[in-house]
């Protein structure tokens, strides 16, 4: 089919919203705030007033997300052109709604089987539950230096597909929360050889493939269905995301139906308008959209040369400035020389993963120190702090960060004293104690022991209990209370979880209902509890206890 000419400078939804905002008419439709008029007598809506004036619904001229024929249809076509998809769909419920819709499309019948990377976002588990699907979990490959899990290897995907030829597809996450990645093309090839789609949760990679210094996109690597959080690494409002598809392996008609099921029938026009604007910014400026943001990152790398205490994570044998585009989808020369077993070959330059090379400050403590100086990171773990740059970052941001790091450096003695007495230090001591009891904690015994390696304690490293698991059934039937009991974390090993435990961030379930709690997992639960980690799904907000199946009950029958 011949590609139609598009006017990339258009922002159809945004332009329509501007026209409606400026148009003089009386509203006899929802929303009830009536362009913000409801707040007039109470002094107005403050900074939200402009948003309220642009807050629309499906009326004449505004189109309909679930049956697009006008501006929304045009905006989605422009997005497909910008991101290299055959068809793109706007998401107003974040990547969560896209992941669920993809799973409900591919696993269209209860009992359908999907091969899934174990450390996936909770939305994937929820999608499996809604679909009544079975999951075969596969182990992601770890980076041997940092110990952090990246993605499953092509060999693992091939083995899983050979063992379960009835699988409807494969779902992986790329990049991970730390911006780490590898080449997806071999995974796509393995899937296509078996006639199934590769689904990619690319929530943190909406900007991929848009600049030579950025890794290649999942679509360019051959993925069939890709979910991107446009709000995370581009410039849309929070909850603004997109789902991109290509090729014949995904039923697009069914996908539209599933999206209508899981998304609101009253989608947010401000969010959709921001998706349109974010796309136009990228479409018009191209690689130039990232110039300022990359300059800010480069300024940080130069500044850290004078602060040797703080190091950045990057693929082995590469420098931070070179790590990004090394394994872009089109780089066949790099692919040819890459070691076949390399798990970590690309690093998003906008995901700055920092650690204290002296070991004085844990990642948690470094985050606390940075926040004290007005620099708010994305997340941290026992070793690393994740600092997110983007096309909106400036060199002034970097100057602020470097100034904070200089202050922290001169506080080294105080930091040492704090590290000896702080909750984070207690967490580290707890971690070390548990690790001494079981050197195989979360599979880390198979990794090289590097100085200060935190791999086994990252909430991203939620690993499968086998390289390729047995099929695990998921469903929505509640677990009867009489089949469960509450036990302490000291007593939970070798029991079967009856609740989902989700450390947040990053939102990767440590346990799902029906999963056996290994000694490793029990130790990790105690570490998280001692550290005061925030865990969604847990009935006990302090994570001192966990709900498990009673030993005399058939475990897992209510998944």
The second-level CATH architecture of the largest domain is: 3-Layer(aba) Sandwich
Specify the helix fraction band.
25-40%
Name of the CATH superfamily of the largest domain:
Type I PLP-dependent aspartate aminotransferase-like (Major domain)
Quote the beta fraction: 5-15%
Helix and strand layout, with pairings?
Blueprint: H1 12-22, H2 49-53, H3 71-83, E1 87-91, H4 94-106, E2 113-117, H5 122-131, E3 134-138, H6 154-163, E4 170-173, E5 180-181, H7 185-193, E6 198-201, E7 225-228, H8 230-233, E8 241-245, H9 252-262, H10 269-285, H11 291-304, E9 310-312, H12 332-337, E10 346-347, E11 351-356, H13 363-372, E12 379-380, E13 385-388, H14 395-410, H15 412-421, H16 423-437, E14 472-473, E15 484-488, E16 502-503, H17 519-530, E17 535-536, E18 545-549
Parallel strand pairs: 2-3, 2-4, 4-6, 6-7
Antiparallel strand pairs: 1-8, 3-14, 5-10, 7-8, 9-11, 11-13, 12-13, 15-18, 16-17
Helix pairs in contact: 1-10, 3-10, 4-5, 4-9, 6-7, 11-14, 15-16, 16-17
């Amino acid at each position: 089919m011949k590609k139609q000419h598009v006017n990339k400078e258009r922002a159809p939804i945004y332009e329509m919203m501007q026209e409606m905002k400026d148009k003089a008419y009386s509203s006899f439709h929802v929303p009830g705030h009536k362009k913000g008029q409801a707040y007039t007598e109470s002094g107005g809506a403050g900074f939200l007033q402009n948003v309220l004036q642009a807050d629309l619904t499906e009326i004449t001229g505004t189109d309909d997300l679930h049956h697009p024929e006008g501006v929304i249809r045009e905006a989605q076509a422009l997005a497909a052109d910008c991101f290299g998809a055959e068809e793109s769909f706007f998401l107003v419920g974040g990547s969560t709604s896209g992941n669920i819709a993809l799973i409900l499309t591919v696993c269209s019948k209860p009992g359908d089987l999907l091969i899934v990377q174990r450390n996936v976002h909770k939305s994937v588990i929820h999608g499996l539950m809604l679909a009544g699907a079975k999951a075969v979990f596969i182990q992601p490959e770890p980076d041997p230096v940092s110990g952090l899990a990246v993605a499953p290897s092509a060999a693992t995907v091939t083995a899983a597909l050979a063992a379960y030829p009835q699988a409807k597809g494969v779902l992986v996450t790329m990049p991970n929360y730390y911006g780490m990645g590898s080449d997806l093309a071999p995974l796509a090839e393995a899937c296509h050889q078996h006639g199934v789609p590769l689904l990619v949760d690319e929530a943190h990679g909406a900007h991929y493939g848009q600049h030579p210094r950025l890794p290649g996109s999942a679509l360019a690597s051959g993925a069939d269905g890709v979910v991107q959080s446009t709000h995370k690494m581009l410039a849309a409002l929070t909850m603004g995301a997109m789902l991109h598809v290509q090729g014949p392996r995904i039923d697009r008609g069914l996908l539209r139906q599933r999206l209508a099921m899981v998304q609101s029938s009253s989608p947010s026009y401000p969010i959709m308008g921001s998706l349109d604007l974010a796309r136009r910014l990228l479409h018009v400026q191209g690689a130039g959209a990232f110039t300022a943001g990359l300059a800010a990152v480069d300024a940080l790398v130069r500044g850290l040369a004078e602060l040797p205490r703080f190091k950045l994570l990057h693929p082995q044998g590469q420098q931070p400035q070179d790590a990004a585009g090394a394994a872009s989808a089109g780089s066949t020369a790099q692919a040819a020389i890459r070691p076949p077993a390399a798990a970590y070959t690309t690093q998003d330059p906008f995901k700055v993963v920092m650690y204290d090379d002296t070991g004085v400050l844990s990642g948690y403590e470094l985050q606390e120190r940075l926040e004290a100086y007005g620099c708010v990171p994305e997340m941290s773990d026992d070793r690393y702090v994740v600092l997110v740059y983007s096309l909106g970052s400036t060199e002034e941001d970097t100057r602020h960060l470097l100034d904070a790091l200089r202050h922290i450096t001169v506080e080294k003695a105080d930091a040492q004293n704090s590290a000896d007495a702080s909750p984070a230090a207690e967490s580290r001591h707890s971690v070390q104690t548990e690790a001494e009891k079981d050197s195989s904690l979360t599979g880390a015994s198979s990794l090289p022991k590097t100085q200060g390696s935190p791999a086994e304690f990252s909430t991203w490293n939620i690993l499968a209990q086998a390289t390729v698991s047995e099929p695990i059934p998921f469903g929505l039937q509640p677990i009867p209370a009489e089949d469960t009991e509450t036990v302490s974390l000291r007593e939970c090993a070798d029991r079967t979880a009856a609740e989902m435990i989700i450390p947040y961030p990053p939102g990767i379930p440590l346990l799902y209902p029906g999963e056996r709690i290994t000694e490793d997992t029990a130790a990790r639960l105690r570490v998280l509890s001692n550290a005061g980690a925030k865990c969604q799904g847990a009935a006990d907000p302090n994570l001192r206890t966990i709900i498990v199946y009673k030993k005399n009950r058939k475990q897992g029958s209510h998944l």
